[in-house]
Amino acid sequence: MKIAADGFELGREARGVGRVLLNLLPRLAKLLPQDSFLVYTKKESAGSRLPGVSEVVLPWRDGYLRWLNGPLLRALRADKPDIFLASNYVLPLFYPGMSVLFEHDISVVSHPEWYPRKYALTRKFLTGRSLKRAAAVVVPSEFTRREIAAHFDIPDAKITTIRYGVEDAFRPQPRDAVDRWKKDLGLAGKRQVGFLGSIFRRRHVAELVRAVARLRQEMPDLGVHIVGENLGGLDRAEQNEIRALPWVRWDAALREEDLALFYSSLDVFAYLSEYEGFGFPPLEALACGTPAVVLGRSSLGELFRGLAVTVESAEVEDVARGLRSALTDDSSRAALVRNFAAARDAFSWSRAAGELAGLLSGLNAGARPA
Fold first, then answer.
1. Which of 37, 170, 285, 357 is the most buried (most CB within 10 A)?
2. Where are the domains of the chain?
3. Alpha helices of 8-165 — where are they, by DSSP H?
4. What does pTM read for this prediction?
């Protein structure tokens, strides 16, 4: 069996979709050694991070959809894989072969108001068409499965829920290494509430900062460490106001090797997102031994119930209450850490790859002539 994958999101700093591929493809190659794997990438190479997988670099100038329906579609027609892993939400418009579609979330369909009108309409059309044409659809949560059912007439049997994992690198870091890292950043001796991710309005970073400001009246050593770019989540006045606060540190990004130190340096990680198909950042924080506070909606309520402090709204008072509990209730903090340690195997990339390998083998067997 020849299996090909859309690796457009692979690059030097693979996040989100690219990260899913980086974790699944090498494991699939080990689980299915009799099969061949290739991944199509743009100019930036995935390099040695994909052992057992051949990489085909295709020309790219601008825009994902142009690449998808141009160079990638031509390569698929030439290579004729048995199964194509469409990892980036949509299929090429006129691809005739068997495909497995990864639908990480459908926020652009559920909340078109969050996106430019033309983009939302185009994506809704392409998503619906891709869901109908794919042989199977993979989603990372039951929430995303329900979202698809609410918006599209797709047989439930066509959808497989495969929960994503967390890398082994995300572990509690040595105390001395964390202390040195905090000292280098000027955060020594200070308690920190952290956030990491692209800053959209739906993630309520402004409300998080206001909640911490309220808590500082009783915890004056408390600060906020934000990591992420502002992608419309804060207006200019909010952004300038937050940057001016002496107890807020804001980094646009961190090096990959510093992420576990970042999470381990925090007293609490907060992720107050209204809509997520999965939610890697709170999972990474929990894996590093840091309690998390999440908004109990979308997949976050499903995946982290009993593993994190959940708040039911992003109102400042509710957020402050959740943060206070996570910061001061030692027995609750210890219980959450224990609960996640017991549940960590449920967030395993090896398990996810095994489930995907079973799906691919079943599809291939069903496609063979009797």
1. 285
2. 2-165+348-367, 175-346
3. 17-31, 64-67, 73-79, 107-110, 117-133, 142-151
4. 0.92
